[in-house]
Each structure stands twice: as C-alpha cells, then as structure tokens.
C-alpha cells in the first residue's frame, strides 16, 4: 500500500515538473520565432543620410533585394549609439568613428564596416564678419569666429557633426558661450535652415548642404582640411548581448550597402541632379586608408 502511494506521489511530481518544463519551452518559443520570422529591421542612422536624400534611393532597393522592411530612426550619431547600447535597434549607419570605436570595444555592436565618406564644410554669410573665407585650417576658422563673436549655429544634438564641432572648439582652446553661440538641438537640414535665416556660420556635411543648397544663401567658406573628413560606418547590434535583436535582418542590411549594387546606388546619388556625387564609396576600405 505504502509503495503504491509512493509511486503515485512520484508520478504526480514528474507530471508537475514536465508541465513546468513544457510551459518554459512555450514561453521561449515566441522569442525564437520572432527572431526567425521578423521581417522588420530597425536601423538608427545619422540625420545627414536622410537629409541628403540618400534614403530615397537606398531604402526601396534594400527592401526589394532583401525582403526586409527597413524601419529608420534618424537621430544624431550619439543618440543612435545610445540606442545600440540598450539593444533597442538592430543596426547602425553613423559617422563618428571615435565614439563608434568606444561602443564597439564595449561589445554592444559588432561587424563594423566603412561604407562611404564625404567631408564637412564651414558655411556662413557672404559678408563673412569673421573673415574665414578661404582658410584651410578649420581650427583657425573657429578661433576667428569666436574672436569676432560672429553668430554660430550649432546642432547641439550630440551627432557626429556636433561631436566634431566640439572637438574643433577644444582644439582651439575655446568654450563657446554667449549670445553669438546658439544651439538648435536639431538635425543637419533644419540647422542649415536656421543658420540661413539668421545669417550665421555653421558646420555641415557636404551632402546635406548640396542637397539643400537651392534654398540657402550661405556659401562654403572653409573646406579641404583633413580634420573635416566625414566617414560613415555600418554595424550590427550584438545579438549575443541583446537576444531580441534581428541579427539576420541587420546582416542583410549591412551586406546590401556593402554590395556592388548598394555601393553603386550610393556612388551615383546626386550625380544627375547636382552634377557631382554626394558620397564616395569605401567598401573594402578601413579608417587606416585615410590615416586614422
């Protein structure tokens, strides 16, 4: 009798354990299924990629070729990197190498590749109160802007452009402040429009400037300094660290922009309309090719 009771008790315990194990498997399956079937890929990217019109050409081609729907999050590079560190996006397309390397070393992102480049320019009013026109040294130009307290419009959004701007002020041993220094907290396109309205100086990526030039009265005053090189990288958010990341979608996105087809779309963007490319392609190259 006692033996029968013991066997019945053991059978009951096994049934409970089996049910719990089964429940755990059921709970795990949706995450696995989502990873395998999720056809949306979330890409955080710097605003200049959108403001330059490149996405209008690139997104339809990516979606057609890969079968994934690209969900873009256009923010400053600093914000994009924060999203990556939280595992809230699948991939990045950004332009602040120093900040990117820090996040890469922390393990939040992997599979980082150089895609393309252009450069930054300093634009400003034709009257040029700061007398920077034709200068070849960006730090010297910033020093003259500050010395003359000429109106400078900063993005102030922790973007790649803003990070470079702050670095240039630092190299000039200047902490910009006062009424002559204003921050928009906005993307490149809007910041250019504000600088144009107020007849101020600003730092801009060349692609966005060219794309919006027809609506601007601000000429390029400083260009050509090596410090103004603008490198764009793509990278995948680490699915080992963030299991819900759509790793397959991120890989498909990265592979496409690095493919001959993707690189051709980037290389020809703007040529017909503006008679010059807005970006120069770099698949297969690294920062070392540019001395970094």
Describe this structure in words.
With 292 residues, the chain is α/β, with parallel strands linked by helices. It has 2 domains: 38-117 and 230-290, Periplasmic binding protein-like II (D-Maltodextrin-Binding Protein, domain 2); 119-228, 3-Layer(aba) Sandwich (D-Maltodextrin-Binding Protein, domain 2), CATH 3.40.190.10. It is 47% helix and 20% strand. The chain has 12 helices and 10 strands. The strands form 2 sheets. Strands 1, 2, 3, 4, 7, 8, 9 and 10 form an 8-stranded mixed β-sheet that branches. The protein has a two-stranded parallel ribbon with strand order 5-6. Helix 7 (160-171) links the parallel strand 5 (152-154) and strand 6 (181-183). The longest helix is centred in the first third of the chain and has 36 residues, at 2-37.
Summarize this entry quickly:
The protein has 292 residues and is α/β, with parallel strands linked by helices. It is built from twelve helices and ten strands.
What labels describe this entry?
47% helix; two-stranded parallel sheet; D-Maltodextrin-Binding Protein, domain 2; 8-stranded mixed beta sheet; alpha/beta; 12 helices; single chain; 292 residues; 10 strands; 2 domains
SSE inventory with pairings:
Blueprint: H1 2-37, E1 40-46, H2 47-51, H3 54-66, E2 69-75, H4 77-85, E3 91-94, H5 97-105, E4 109-123, H6 138-147, E5 152-154, H7 160-171, E6 181-183, H8 188-198, E7 202-205, H9 206-212, E8 220-222, E9 229-237, H10 247-258, H11 260-268, H12 271-274, E10 280-281
Parallel strand pairs: 1-2, 1-3, 5-6
Antiparallel strand pairs: 3-9, 4-7, 4-8, 4-9, 4-10
Helix pairs in contact: 3-10
């Amino acid at each position: 009798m006692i033996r029968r009771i013991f066997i019945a008790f053991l059978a009951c315990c096994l049934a409970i354990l089996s049910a719990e194990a089964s429940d755990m498997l059921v709970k795990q399956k949706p995450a696995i299924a989502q990873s395998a079937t999720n056809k949306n890929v979330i890409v955080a990217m710097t605003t200049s990629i959108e403001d330059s019109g490149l996405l209008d050409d690139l997104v339809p081609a990516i979606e057609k070729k890969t079968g994934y729907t690209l969900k873009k999050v256009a923010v400053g590079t600093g914000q994009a990197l924060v999203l990556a560190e939280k595992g809230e996006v699948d991939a990045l397309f950004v332009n602040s190498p120093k900040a990117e390397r820090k996040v890469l070393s922390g393990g939040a992102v992997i599979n980082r590749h150089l895609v393309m480049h252009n450069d930054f320019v300093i634009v400003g009013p034709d009257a040029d109160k700061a007398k920077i026109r034709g200068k070849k040294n960006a730090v010297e130009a910033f020093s003259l802007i500050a010395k003359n307290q000429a109106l400078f419009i900063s993005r102030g959004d922790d973007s790649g452009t803003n990070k470079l701007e702050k670095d240039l002020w630092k190299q000039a041993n200047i902490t910009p402040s006062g009424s002559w220094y204003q921050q928009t907290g906005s993307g490149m396109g809007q910041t250019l429009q504000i600088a144009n309205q107020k007849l101020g100086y600003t730092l801009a990526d060349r692609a966005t400037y060219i794309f919006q030039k027809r609506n601007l009265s601000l000429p390029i005053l400083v260009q050509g300094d090596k410090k103004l090189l603008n490198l764009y990288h793509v990278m995948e958010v680490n699915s080992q660290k963030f299991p819900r990341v759509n790793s397959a979608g991120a890989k498909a996105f990265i592979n496409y922009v690095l493919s001959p087809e993707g690189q051709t779309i980037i290389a020809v963007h703007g040529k017909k309309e503006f008679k010059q490319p807005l970006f120069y392609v770099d698949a297969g190259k690294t920062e070392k090719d540019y001395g970094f």
